[in-house]
Amino acid sequence: MTSYAAAGVDIEAGDRAVELMKSKVARSRRPEVVDDASGFAGLFDVSALLKFRRPLLATSTDGVGTKVMLASKLGKHDTIGIDLVGMVVDDLVVCGAEPLFMTDYIACGKVVPERIAEIVGGVAEGCRQAGCALVGGETAEHPGAMGPDEYDLAGAGTGVVEADELLGPDRVRAGDVVVAMASSGVHSNGYSLVRHIIKTAGLGLESQIPEFGRTLGEELLEPTRIYSLDCLALTAHVPVRAYAHITGGGLTANLARSLPGSVDAVLDRSSWTVPPVFTVLGEAGKVPQAELDKTFNLGVGMAAIVPAEDADKALELLATRGVPSWVLGEIVPGTGEARYR
């Protein structure tokens, strides 16, 4: 007999996954979340925005790239959702927006309820860390298009910022300084190169790496640091000019996006020590420095541009929040480029 299940789609497994993830999603709830009895939509009470003079909604969407392939290969699915949230909300906060809520989408070859619940549990934990709510999502089973153990995930987030508090290049001035916030590792960019290095250098994910104090796989699956609440706290503490989320393209390319055409950001390589994961990968893959620069964050996950006189206050605030930070460089007259000395 022909049926949906015979075609490879298990509706009951999907329902079971929803039941398993409910308690985890509840941990990300905000007071503005309104229950939708039908479950077809996520509801958010925007009357909270009435306190704004001119609220601007900000939105961002992203995925986690081929990092999911390592998570799948290692059978560890509870942190990849944190990566997803980090990639979305830390784009939102660059303009000064407070992340309000997110939705997620998971496509897989076969719904394994426990695995889906772990993935969504990670998304919910990321939302908790970011201070936003996970208000809905979708899991789609694609037999034939994806293998039984394959999956991919994406998400979209919405935030809000007061119009006259919008951060960006127009606020940046010569004489400002660049404050770096440490990354937790590779984050979620450059994993196609990472996988190529692993393959060509014959590295094993289960190999113990002395420089890491753990296995290569454990190091590479370290979840993305989420900066949104730290950035919002910093903006409330000092007059931040702009932020730059350091993702694909590396430090200089992303920082240049937050500069006007009248200045340059001049960065000092000696101001920090590049984490071992990048030097190990670079040496194993014989990757030129220029390629490392434009592919990885090299230890800087977020950068803030602040007035020079407020740099110490910024560093002190970030230290109290457990975010390693340092003065990375300065803003000088130029043509809108970020470069090393």
UniProtKB/TrEMBL annotation:
Determine the domain of life of the protein's source.
Bacteria
Q: What does it catalyze?
A: 2-formamido-N(1)-(5-O-phospho-beta-D-ribosyl)acetamidine + ATP = 5-amino-1-(5-phospho-beta-D-ribosyl)imidazole + ADP + phosphate + H(+)
What subcellular compartments does it reside in? Cytoplasm
EC number(s) per entry = 6.3.3.1
Q: Which Pfam families match?
A: AIRS, AIRS_C
Please give the biological process terms from Gene Ontology that the record holds. Answer: 'de novo' IMP biosynthetic process; adenine biosynthetic process
Q: Which keywords fit this entry according to its UniProt record?
A: ATP-binding, Cytoplasm, Ligase, Nucleotide-binding, Purine biosynthesis
What InterPro entries does this protein's entry cite? PurM-like_C_dom, PurM-like_C_sf, PurM-like_N, PurM-like_N_sf, PurM_cligase
Give start and end of each PurM-like C-terminal domain.
173-337
Q: What are the residue boundaries of the PurM-like N-terminal domain, all occurrences included?
A: 54-161
A single GO CC term for this protein reads: cytosol
Which GO molecular function annotations are given, in alphabetical order?
A: ATP binding; phosphoribosylamine-glycine ligase activity; phosphoribosylformylglycinamidine cyclo-ligase activity
**Pathway(s) served:** Purine metabolism; IMP biosynthesis via de novo pathway; 5-amino-1-(5-phospho-D-ribosyl)imidazole from N(2)-formyl-N(1)-(5-phospho-D-ribosyl)glycinamide: step 2/2
* Keyword Membrane set for record: no
Q: Which PANTHER family does UniProt cross-reference here?
A: TRIFUNCTIONAL PURINE BIOSYNTHETIC PROTEIN ADENOSINE-3, TRIFUNCTIONAL PURINE BIOSYNTHETIC PROTEIN ADENOSINE-3-RELATED
Q: Which family does it belong to?
A: Belongs to the AIR synthase family.
NCBIfam families attached here?
purM (TIGR00878)
What's this protein's name? Phosphoribosylformylglycinamidine cyclo-ligase
| Species for this entry | Herbidospora galbida
What gene is this protein a product of?
purM
